[in-house]
Amino acid sequence: MAAFFNSKTTKQSRRASKKNRKKRPEEGSDWFVNLLTLGLSALVLSFIWSFWTRHTTNTLVSQELALVAEQPDFSLPETLSAVKKYPHIKIEILNGCGISGIAAEYKNIIREKTFDVQLTGNAPNFNFETTQIIARSDNTPAAYLLAKELGMSESTVLIQKDETRRVDITLILGKDYQNIPAFKTFF
Fold first, then answer.
1. Got the DSSP string for 5-73?
2. Which of 185, 181, 177 is CA-nearest to residue 102?
3. Whether pTM exceeds 0.85
4. Would you say the C-alpha torsion 143, 144, 150, 156 has a positive or negative sign?
5. Do residues 140 and 109 lie in contact, with contact meaning Cβ atoms separated by under 8 Å?
6. Per CATH, is 77-186 categorized as 3.30.70?
7. Domain limits of the chain?
8. Which residues pair with 119 in a beta bridge?
9. What is the pLDDT of residues 135-181, one digit of tens each?
10. Confidence of residue 80 (pLDDT cuts 50, 70, 90)
11. SS3 for 163?
């Protein structure tokens, strides 16, 4: 009986091996997969080599970066004071006409003229008919410079020294803010 089971199992194993041989892929298709794997490996290695050489041994890039770091870009805000004509003149802008956002618009105009705008806010009231430039420190010529840069007459400059304000000039925008030449050219 043992011989019967042994002969039966060997026949089944022979049949299974024949089936497996039929289901196995041919040897010819393995070369394509191997070639594809080799190509992708070469591509990955070339990317790694390129990255490594560019970031570790490329002295030209580091030299260029050193040169760029030495030369300041004059359009950056921290180096803008190097090209300012009036960096030492401190100005506050007060809204005296009641139009919302007008002090912020004038802040842009005056900063473009290279003055140092310290703060913006509202005047004590909104009843100012005309725009006024008030000299607050001993630097009264600065108020006349601001009037000139804005295209205003020197008669709009008032001298009221107030050292507690910590600014050289107070600009109070009146209801005539649209008639100032600097405002017309800016917008």
1. HHHHHHHHHHHHHHHHHHHSPPHHHHHHHHHHHHHHHHHHHHHHHHHHIIIII-HHHHHHHHHHHHS--
2. 177
3. no
4. positive
5. no
6. yes
7. 27-71, 77-186
8. 92
9. 999 888 999 999 999 999 998 899 999 888 889 999 999 999 999 99
10. very low
11. helix
